[in-house]
């Protein structure tokens, strides 16, 4: 089933099928879905382009070859890159053992094809025996998909939320911890402790994680490495590539090549 994002008109909770999937094509004017939730758990698979999901305490980046898992009942918002192609898989609570928290999963080629095969089945075929066997194979494979670190820990603390909003709106800003502390009327040490307590990461590592998410989003959206380096405020492309490689283990070029193999 293929639908336009923003024009779905389908309530995943209206039926109790163990699993249902459909394709999404993102239109230029329909790139963001505000906070909402479902009874069913949701797996969002990026086929082309990428999508950022936000929940109360974290932001998740979903590049191609990966998916984000959102447990049932958890409020979340989605923001896709322009012209992205996605696949949504909704799973009935208790149908298969999945994490009880949001996480990004690296999806194997087999699981990807199983989800796509299910998405091609019309609604009237969901109760057929062949579809049930397909879903069972999918459920056998899903719990074994490894987690990936595409998460930015966030909290409800107003100062943390303010910092995240500012960094997202001004990705090229290179404000230091000391500069943030001055703006927030705190000592540098107090702010460092706050970030560590609320996110589990040092300020430097936390900001770098946000930059990696922003970098992936811009690269997947079609910007060059040089353009992304400039957009994130790096003085040189080399410095940006070094940061990217430290965070993800590959240069931006190699990483993108692994997402879109020939």
Automatic annotation (TrEMBL):
The keyword Transferase does not apply. GO terms for molecular function: DNA-binding transcription factor activity; sequence-specific DNA binding. It comes from the Bacteria. Residues 158-258 form the HTH araC/xylS-type domain. InterPro entries: Homeodomain-like_sf (IPR009057), HTH_AraC (IPR018060), RmlC-like_jellyroll (IPR014710), RmlC_Cupin_sf (IPR011051). Keywords: DNA-binding, Repressor, Transcription, Transcription regulation. The keyword tRNA processing does not apply. This is Helix-turn-helix transcriptional regulator. The lineage of its organism: Bacteria, Pseudomonadati, Pseudomonadota, Gammaproteobacteria, Enterobacterales.
């Amino acid at each position: 089933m293929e639908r336009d994002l923003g024009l779905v008109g389908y309530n995943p909770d209206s039926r109790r099928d163990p699993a249902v999937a459909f394709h999404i094509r993102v239109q230029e004017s329909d790139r963001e879905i505000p906070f909402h939730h479902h009874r069913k758990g949701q797996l969002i698979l990026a086929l082309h382009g990428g999508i950022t999901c936000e929940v109360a305490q974290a932001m998740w980046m979903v590049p191609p070859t990966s998916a984000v898992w959102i447990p049932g009942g958890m409020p979340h918002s989605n923001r896709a890159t322009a012209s992205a192609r996605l696949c949504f898989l909704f799973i009935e609570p208790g149908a298969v053992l999945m994490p009880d928290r949001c996480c990004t999963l690296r999806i194997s080629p087999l699981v990807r094809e199983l989800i796509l095969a299910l998405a091609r089945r019309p609604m009237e075929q969901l109760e057929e025996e062949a579809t049930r066997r397909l879903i069972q194979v999918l459920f056998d494979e899903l719990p074994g998909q490894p987690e990936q670190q595409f998460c930015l820990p966030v909290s409800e603390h107003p100062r943390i939320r303010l910092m995240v909003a500012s960094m997202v709106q001004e990705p090229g800003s290179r404000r230091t911890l000391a500069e943030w502390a001055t703006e927030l009327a705190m000592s540098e040490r107090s702010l460092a402790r706050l970030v560590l307590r609320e996110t589990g990461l040092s300020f430097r590592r936390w900001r770098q994680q946000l930059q990696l998410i922003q970098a992936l989003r811009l690269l997947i959206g079609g910007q060059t490495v040089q353009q992304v380096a400039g957009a994130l405020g790096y003085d040189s492309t080399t410095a940006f590539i070094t940061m990217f490689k430290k965070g993800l283990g590959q240069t931006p070029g190699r990483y993108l090549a692994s997402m879109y193999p020939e």
